[in-house]
């Protein structure tokens, strides 16, 4: 009897990559016999997981996710310690602040000298929200790629650039994308249509971690995508570890509220959500240059050094959000299908923890590392 497993993961973001890593490191995973197939239509960390701020918080979580957040935050530190994450993916602790600014401020509050990129004279009120014991950051794109690389060193990982179109018990159907199309030896390509052949693959377990695209594979699951834009600014100095949630009153009385995340070599700034519909693939995400410019113009008001610096990256992504519970959806559906999605703005924080509990769910049949009872998919269907 062949007891080998082919575990299929759909989605190459932080959740899927974390599932991959903790599965291949699980003591019940047979590295000689078992395989994992990772389907990703656009590339590792090509969607929100590669474009997020990378902010990590230990404490800003409600009852449904507090246990998972504690597990995941600590796993981030362990991974950074084990694989030199400080150098490889910019892991470091942060101070976190709420700052209210006013260009007509008359009595400035005291601003930390570590925040060199905010003009002290406009700072009306400073409130500490977190410190280096409970706040941290990673560069999420670099994190995902590094963890994928580590997992690939120790197990047979089959990365398929394909668009999964359906999921059933122990089977997925998909189309290959671009150069990864490879016909069978006895198959002669006679038309462009053959490049859209539907393939199938048997699977012992299927983990759907496709972010806002998850309902395309699990119908009636109440998860949507909310588009958000961000930029990175190339400042002329090394930046200390600070995250700032701001509100600023401009000289004309209008208000802005950018979020700032200082990476060592750049300043990440994001704006507000909009209602642009979710595209078929993450690679088709449209970037509204006007929104990116508005973020830069808003940030320019905080200090001349920002105004005089160039934008390195303009980008947009869709955050996966549960419009049923507002919390992640993590659990088993049917006999061999699992879902892990709708982490919202906490996807990077909760990624490793989600991967850990999914590895337990698949290979142990139960979760022992965290309490995720309130994240069961049952309450998230229409």
From TrEMBL:
Residues 7-361 form the FAD dependent oxidoreductase domain. Keywords: Membrane, Transmembrane, Transmembrane helix. SUPFAM superfamilies: Nucleotide-binding domain. GO terms for biological process: retrograde transport, endosome to Golgi. InterPro entries: FAD-dep_OxRdtase (IPR006076), FAD/NAD-bd_sf (IPR036188). The chain crosses the membrane at residues 6-24. Coiled coil: none annotated. GO terms for cellular component: cytosol; late endosome. Gene3D superfamilies: D-Amino Acid Oxidase, subunit A, domain 2, FAD/NAD(P)-binding domain. PROSITE patterns: PROKAR_LIPOPROTEIN (PS51257). It holds the Pfam family DAO. This is FAD-dependent oxidoreductase. The lineage of its organism: Eukaryota, Fungi, Dikarya, Ascomycota, Taphrinomycotina.
């Amino acid at each position: 009897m062949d007891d080998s497993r082919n575990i299929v993961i759909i989605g190459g973001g932080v959740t899927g990559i974390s599932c991959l890593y903790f599965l291949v490191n699980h003591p019940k995973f047979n590295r000689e016999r078992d395989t994992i197939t990772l389907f990703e239509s656009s590339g590792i960390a090509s969607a929100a997981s590669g474009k997020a701020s990378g902010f990590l918080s230990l404490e800003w979580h409600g009852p449904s996710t507090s246990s998972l957040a504690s597990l995941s935050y600590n796993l981030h530190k362990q991974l950074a310690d084990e694989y030199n994450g400080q150098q490889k993916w910019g892991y470091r602790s942060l101070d976190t602040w709420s700052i209210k600014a006013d260009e007509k401020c008359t009595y400035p509050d005291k601003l930390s000298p570590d925040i060199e990129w905010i003009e002290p004279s406009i700072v009306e009120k400073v409130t500490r929200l977190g410190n280096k014991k409970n706040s941290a950051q990673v560069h999420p794109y670099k994190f995902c790629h590094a963890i994928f690389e580590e997992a690939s060193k120790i197990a047979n990982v089959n990365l398929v650039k394909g668009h999964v179109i359906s999921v059933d018990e122990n089977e997925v159907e998909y189309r290959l994308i671009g150069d990864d199309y490879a016909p069978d030896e006895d198959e002669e390509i006679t038309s462009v249509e053959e490049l859209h052949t539907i393939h199938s693959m048997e699977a012992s377990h299927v983990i759907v971690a496709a972010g806002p695209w998850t309902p395309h594979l699990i119908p009636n699951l109440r998860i949507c995508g909310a588009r958000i834009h961000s930029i990175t600014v190339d400042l002329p100095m090394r930046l200390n570890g600070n995250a700032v949630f701001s509100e600023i009153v401009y000289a004309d009385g209008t208000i802005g509220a950018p979020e700032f995340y200082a990476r060592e070599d750049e300043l990440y700034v994001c704006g507000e959500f909009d209602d642009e519909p979710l595209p078929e693939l993450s690679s088709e995400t449209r970037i509204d240059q006007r929104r990116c410019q508005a973020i830069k113009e808003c940030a320019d008001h905080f200090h001349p050094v920002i105004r005089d610096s160039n934008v390195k990256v303009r980008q947009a992504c869709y955050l996966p959000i549960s419009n049923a519970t507002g919390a992640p959806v993590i659990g088993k559906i049917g006999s061999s299908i699992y879902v892990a999605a709708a982490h919202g703005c906490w996807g990077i924080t909760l990624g490793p923890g989600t991967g850990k509990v999914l590895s337990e769910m698949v290979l142990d049949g139960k979760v022992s590392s965290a309490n995720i009872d309130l994240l069961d998919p049952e309450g998230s269907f229409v």
